[in-house]
Design brief:
Chain lengths: 149, 69
């Protein structure tokens, strides 16, 4: 499996095919909030240089993706570039062995190469990746609560 | 270096599969979360761990033994 940084325009057509299964497997409140990716916003993010995408490919086929937004923290503008993870997904049949670990390590390595000093990444409460994150040296910093209004 | 058989025994117990030095991690039929659990179990029982910057290199159960420090 190959993990590499890619441009939105180069992989969006393949990511589109995976979004429905990603959404179906992990999204909450599906009846109230439908999947409708605002692709123009990601295009803008890419144009501004703040979108960071790392893909996972097996035999050339897209089997996973990570994307995050790079920006300086609103409260700590001199602290350096930070990455706010948006989504990440690896198709279940490709999660064997160390693939997930290698994927996240590739993400961190690519972010560091772009000068990112801190990564923010969350995990679903019902599909907790916490042990994996901790093994990769991450610290638990927040709990996120949601409510439909 | 730790006795490899100690590590093989833990892997066999946790995965239910007979393993040896050349058994590929991909063949253990576990995902990355389960793999991390396995590594934590090995650490708990041996007092040794694998630095996270060595995780990319692991291909076989023998590699786990080699990278434990």
């Amino acid at each position: 499996m190959i993990f590499q940084q890619e441009k939105w325009a180069d992989c969006v057509h393949e990511m589109r095919e995976i979004w429905p299964e990603h959404w179906a497997s992990l999204a909450l409140d599906k009846e109230q909030i439908a999947l409708a990716c605002d692709e123009s916003k990601y295009e803008q993010g890419e144009a501004l240089g703040c979108l960071h995408i790392v893909t996972a490919r097996a035999d050339g086929k897209l089997v996973g993706y990570y994307y995050g937004m790079l920006m300086h923290h609103l409260h700590y503008k001199f602290a350096g570039l930070m990455c706010y993870s948006d989504v990440y997904y690896l198709k279940p049949e490709y999660r064997k062995g160390t693939n997930g670990i290698r994927f996240l390590r590739a993400v961190m390595k690519s972010l560091k190469a772009r000068g990112v000093v801190k990564l923010y990444i969350s995990t679903k409460a019902h599909a907790d990746n916490g042990p994996l994150f901790k093994y990769l040296g991450m610290n638990l910093s927040d709990h996120v609560y949601t409510k439909l209004l | 270096m730790i006795d490899p058989q100690v590590v093989y025994s833990i892997v066999e117990r946790e995965t239910g599969r007979y393993v040896g030095r050349n058994t590929k991690i991909q063949e253990l039929n576990i995902d990355s979360l389960e793999f991390v659990d396995l590594l934590l179990q090995i650490t708990n029982e041996t007092g040794l761990s694998i630095p996270d910057d060595q995780l990319d290199k692991l291909q076989t159960v023998g590699d786990i033994v080699m990278e434990l420090v």
